[in-house]
Amino acid sequence: MYSFLYYLLGVFTMIALIAHDAQKGNLIEFVRRHHGFFAEHQLVATGNTGDLLTEELGLTVERVAHGPHGGDLMIGSRVATGRVEALLFFRDPLTAQPHEPDVNALMRVCDVHQIPMATNRATAERIVASLSVPEVVA
Hints:
Layout: H1 2-9, E1 14-19, H2 24-33, H3 35-39, E2 42-45, H4 47-57, E3 62-63, H5 71-80, E4 84-90, H6 100-112, E5 117-118, H7 121-132
Helix pairs in contact: 2-4, 5-6
């Protein structure tokens, strides 16, 4: 419902990008390899991740707060209102995060709203490949 309303208003969906500190380099390299794809989409990212994407790759990125300061929840609100088409969240599975409840809430809202979510490069490759195929309207 929200997606159609946003379409009518000229507000388009975006791809959300988040990376824990130990994974930021991996996310930057992934986006660099798929620069053409990401340059064609509206992007939203948490604090430092968004800064790095803009500084290192020259991409236009809507930046929200840092993850521990509510950024994950801010992206979750965009998911819940139909603004996010996919989430690429390069998580650090070996380090406990102080804002883990926020991370879990974000993942839950993606599940509830059927938003594809990648937490590693292999899954992110599949999502980018899937979104790169033009939709056929019958």
